[in-house]
Write a structure and sequence with these properties.
With 79 residues, the chain is an all-alpha fold. It has two helices and no strands. 9% of the residues are buried. Keywords: Membrane, Transmembrane, Transmembrane helix.
Length: 79
């Protein structure tokens, strides 16, 4: 089933995380802003793509920083 080389894991992670998260957040924000109207889907699509353009590179930059921070604050497992 796997078709991507392991070296692309971080890129694929950022793509999927930013895509899914932006889809959910932009949908909720757009629905709250315009309500359940006929234009909701078109506004949502525009909001999604314009947000995703920012979210994807942001995750690429921020994820390694978050991983480093977590390595410093996480406790070692007790054995």
């Amino acid at each position: 089933m796997a078709f991507l080389p392991r070296k692309y894991e971080n890129l694929a992670f950022a793509l999927l995380l930013s895509g899914i998260q932006t889809f959910i957040i932009s949908g909720i924000s757009t629905a709250l802003a315009v309500g359940w109207s006929a234009e909701l889907v078109s506004f949502w699509v525009r909001a999604y793509f314009s947000s995703w353009v920012i979210a994807f590179p942001s995750v690429l930059v921020v994820a390694p920083l978050v991983r480093r921070i977590l390595k410093k604050i996480m406790l070692e497992p007790v054995r």
